Amino acid sequence: MHVISASNSVLVLVDYQQRLMPAIHRGEQVIAEAVRLAEAARALGLRVLGTEQNPAGLGPNVEAIRQRCERTLAKTHFDACEDGLLDAIGDVGEVVIAGCEAHVCLLQTTLGLLRAGRRIWVVGPACGSRSSVDHGLAMGRLQGAGAVVVSPEMVAFEWLQDCQHAAFKPVLQMFKPRID
Question: In the list 23, 79, 83, 166, which could disulfide-bond 108, CB 3.0-4.6 Å?
Answer without folding.
Answer: 79
